[in-house]
Amino acid sequence: MEVYEKIKSYYPNARLANLYVVDRAEMNAYAVGRNKLGITRGLIQSVKPRVLQSIMAHEYGLASNDYLWNALYMASVNAVFWSLINASAMFVIIAIFVLIFTLFLTSGLLSGIARGIMNVYRLWVRMGLYIARFGSRSREFRSDEIAAVIGYREEAIEWFYLLDQINYKAPRGLLDQLNQTHPPTPERIANLEKY
After folding, report:
1. DSSP state of 139
2. Of 4, 104, 168, 170, which is the most exposed, with the fewest CB atoms less than 10 Å away?
3. What pLDDT is stored for residue 127 in this prediction?
4. What is the per-residue pLDDT for 170?
5. Helices 185-192/153-167 angle, 10° precision
6. Predicted local confidence at residue 106, as pLDDT
7. Residues lower than pLDDT 50 in the chain
8. Buried (b) or exposed (e) across 146-180, using 16+ Cβ within 10 A?
């Protein structure tokens, strides 16, 4: 309740969240949209109370931005849009394949063209996922900042140092970095040190 009161004093439109305790040993917390927060029993038992409050402030930041609902909405709009594009384009593609198939029935050109089209499509889908993940990392930074602004800066940094010791694995290459849904822990610490 203390975390909510602090958030409410800075962000008057924040709503009280329902908090669910998940009976698992791992240390995790999450926002599941529409002001629902989850926290594992392992996290509750493993960190100091103020560190736990900083984590909950971060999760409130995600929930108050309706993170999950925005993501689902954007995914739904995107799915409908691309379904329409794909449906109309599919007719053209089928017509082209029929034409190519009749012209090059005995050559390997048809399979080469089909593989090329599939590779371009896979690249397109992958790029969309990378863009969505980049937005996710940006929301994580903003939620970290909310925890800092309402008075949990030191505790959030303490949590990130602990998190870094527990499971930080530096991304090895560009694709590893693009696949992250959370920013690298050292970047999150550096961002919080500005506050």
Report:
1. H
2. 170
3. 74
4. 52
5. 170
6. 54
7. 68
8. bbbbbebbebbbbbbebbeeeeeeeeeeeeebeee
Q: Which two tokens stand for residue 68?
A: 């999950």
The per-residue pLDDT for 71 is 56
The pLDDT value recorded for residue 68 is 46
> Could you give the CA distance from residue 128 to residue 123 in angstroms, rounded to a whole number?
9
Residues 6 or more apart whose Cβ sits within 8 Å of residue 158: 48, 51, 54
Q: Is 183 exposed, middle or buried (0-12, 13-18, 19+ CB in 10 A)?
A: buried
Close Cβ partners of 165 (under 8 Å, ≥ 6 residues apart): none
pLDDT value of position 55: 95
pLDDT at 83: 72
**Whole-Å CA distances, 29 to 16, 66, 145, 175:** 17, 16, 17, 26
Q: Is 33 left (phi over 0), alpha (psi -120 to 50) or beta?
A: left
Per-residue tokens: 180: 């992250």
17, two tokens: 């969240």
Would you kindly state where each structural domain of the chain is located, as residue ranges?
1-195
What are the CA-CA distances from residue 171 to residues 179, 181, 191 (Å)?
9, 12, 19
